[in-house]
Amino acid sequence: MRRYLTIAGLSVVALLSLASSPSFAAVSEPDDDPLIDPAPCVNAATDGDADKIIAACTPLIDQHRTAKPDRVKALLARAAAFDRKQQPDRALADYDAALGLDATKADGFNARGELRRRQGNRRGALADFTAALKHDPQHQAARANAKSLAQELERLGAELALKGKPSFDCKTARRAVQKAICADPDLADLDRAIDAAYQAQLRQAVAGVVSGAGSRRAVQRAQQDFIAARDAAFGRSKDQLRGVMQARLQQLLAGKAD
């Protein structure tokens, strides 16, 4: 006869059978990490209050059982909230996490691109705007951002190409003061700014067909007088030369011929 060890009147075989039954499993340890309802985070994001968004979405983000779509939405909402609270590093961290989970979110790429652009990271911003348009070619905000950033980069490229170069060709410079300007990038930039302001004032004089101090002849004469004063200042010191040039630039920007 086979013998079985009994515990409280039940054999070991009976206990094992009971443990494997559905009814026994139903009374196992309760779940100590229940799912968090995403509704408060969604509602807070709709209301737009940054503090409420952070408070409502953070538990959803931290909960390891949160479904990926809900986590992505919560991260994007909290990122925007951190951005509004001027906490760019925390905002970028959330954008990175969200886009790492779902790299198809055009709104997320566009929002991160706008933040990167404000921080001066134009290359990263352009990459984000491009990614946004890749996933949603009709994304109007990303399209507008990409266009304006491209124009900005083109302008900066043109300015960089001219940086340290005066308004005249240094290869043909003959006067000593011109050679001194060519040799000093700051003076070269100042000379180019003066010429641009002078040309703008001259165009206004021609368009206005006015007489007196605002006439074309008066504007040209004032520029000739400045050049004479600039050349005379060169014989003293570079600081005096710079001072004469800065004074002329301020005069032109103020709309005065002389």
TrEMBL record:
<feature type="signal peptide">
    <location>
        <begin position="1"/>
        <end position="25"/>
    </location>
</feature>
<dbReference type="InterPro" id="IPR009739">
    <property type="entry name" value="LprI-like_N"/>
</dbReference>
<dbReference type="InterPro" id="IPR019734">
    <property type="entry name" value="TPR_rpt"/>
</dbReference>
<keyword id="KW-0802">TPR repeat</keyword>
<feature type="domain" description="Lysozyme inhibitor LprI-like N-terminal">
    <location>
        <begin position="170"/>
        <end position="243"/>
    </location>
</feature>
<feature type="repeat" description="TPR">
    <location>
        <begin position="106"/>
        <end position="139"/>
    </location>
</feature>
<dbReference type="InterPro" id="IPR011990">
    <property type="entry name" value="TPR-like_helical_dom_sf"/>
</dbReference>
<dbReference type="Pfam" id="PF07007">
    <property type="entry name" value="LprI"/>
</dbReference>
<protein>
    <submittedName>
        <fullName>Tetratricopeptide (TPR) repeat protein</fullName>
    </submittedName>
</protein>
<keyword id="KW-0732">Signal</keyword>
